[in-house]
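Protein in question passed on here:
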Amino acid sequence: MQTKHVAYSILELAIVSKGQSLLETFNHSLKLAQAAEKSGYKRFWLTEHHNSDAIGSSATSILIGKIAEGTERIRVGSGGIMLPNHSPLIVAEQFGTLGVLHPNRIDLGLGRAPGTDRDTASAIRSDFYQAAMSFPNDVQEIQNYFSEENASEKVRATVAEGVNVPLYILGSSVESAHLAAKKGLPYAFASHFATPQLFTALDIYRSEFRPSEVLEKPYTFAGVNVVIADTDAEAEFIATSLYQMIINLLSGKRDYMQPPFEITDEFKELCQHPAVQKMLKYTFVGSKATVKKKVESFLEETNVDELIAVTNIYDGKARIKSYQLFAEVMQELNTAAVV
């Protein structure tokens, strides 16, 4: 049985469905955030990805501003900014500005992956792989820019100094777990696609955690894919768009999110491929009752403090409904939790 209250949040990729414009995609992201706010979600984080037909969240900080402007209470932030793609000074200035415009509502999640393919990573920054090695130093540099003490330094992010923008370390392997623990920062693991090292990373973070000024004890997130509909059969049908997206990703095919379709024997076989199964290990598809059981089991196994849900499906209305049903699942589990 779940024994504590677990927060629930959204990770948004601004998925572009076939036949949908980018403007329609961005407006749907805002509608989703507004619905999420009403359903009790804690945060709405946007990812940074590049060179993908299906993902519109490449100018992450700009979309964060749009979402924050159109909502009132929900925390809005990055899940994450891929720091090796950027100057720490510019990141501090952008998020300091967001923090001034939307006080106490902006999160800055930081990752070290490129969020794209090798060629695009090199186009963004020719020395990307060297920059990735300086990730710990760059995180510290951002922390310095946000501190009031930095006012006496020669180089300053004046719009960030003293602004309340919490930092989070994101990871898809164990390296970032060591860093998050050392710096005493919250740690979010991308288990919605990087599944093998989830438990190892959580163990490392918890065992090595050092209390800091911002966090007294470990705080963990885990990403999960969620598709909920009225029935298991309807959810499985809707989820074919997600399965196809993953198959396309693994085969190097760039395309928009495709409409759902009737499952064939050939498609079933493709979905059983070990690479697909590994990536979608923590994917919960079904009716509300079915998903509730799967989520409860996952929470018992991981003991995370917050779930960050990813629902990538074709139809916008079905997507919002899935997130609303997931909120009901979490509210029921939290109500039943033994504190």
